[in-house]
Each structure stands twice: as structure tokens, then as C-alpha cells.
């Protein structure tokens, strides 16, 4: 199912992005934009983001992810775009996977 006017952003963020508040930074930037989905640490040391919303809002979030919090060092952000499914009701932090 696709959601009219919305898209899905899946992003993998690599670098020094764990232990620096990166997930909370993403949460704090996603919620005011009305973006739904989640952010989580990955066992390989990266951070994964799966978010749905309007394309412009997701581009704003992606720019924030690339900028990151103060103590991080991002070596790469790999975004992919998909159709939104509407499966999320809010944005949250998920457990490491």
C-alpha cells in the first residue's frame, strides 16, 4: 500500500555515530517535522533510519543526519527512497539489531 504524497527514506549512517547521542539527535529532528518511523544502532557500528513523511520533510531530516550532533564523525550516509507504506504512527528509537 502506498500513501499519497508521502515517501519512505531508508538511510545507513556510518562513522563514529554510536555513543554520541546520534539516535536522540535523529529523534529530535524527526518529531517536529511529523515524520514517522524509527532509528536504531546496528551491531556493525552504523546507525539505521527508516522514516516516512513528505519528501521535503525527509530531505530536511536527511540534511540534519548528514550534519549530525556535535561529537559525531560521519564517514558516509547512504539513503534510498521507496514508496511510503503508512505502517508507523510516530517516530521512535528501536533496540540495536
Instruction: Please give the largest β-sheet.
Output: 5 strands, mixed
Q: How would you classify the helix and strand content by structural class?
A: alpha+beta
Query: Biggest sheet, strands in spatial order?
Result: 4-1-3-2-5
Strands, total number: 5
Mean pLDDT: 94
CATH architecture: 2-Layer Sandwich
Report the top-level CATH class.
Alpha Beta
Share of residues in helices: 10-25%
Shape: globular
Distance between the termini: 26 Å
Q: Rg to the nearest angstrom?
A: 12 Å
Report low-confidence residues grouped into runs of 5 or more.
none
CATH topology: Alpha-Beta Plaits
Q: How do the SSEs run, as a string of H and E?
A: EHEEHEE
Task: Report what the structure shows.
The protein has 97 residues and is of the alpha+beta class. It has one domain: Alpha-Beta Plaits (2-Layer Sandwich), CATH 3.30.70.100. The mean pLDDT is 94. The protein has a five-stranded mixed sheet with strand order 4-1-3-2-5, covered by helices on one side. A hairpin with a 5-residue loop joins strand 2 and strand 3. Helix 1 packs antiparallel against helix 2.
Concise synopsis of the structure shown:
This protein has 97 residues and is α+β, with helices and mostly antiparallel strands.
Q: What are the main properties of this structure?
A:
97 residues, alpha+beta
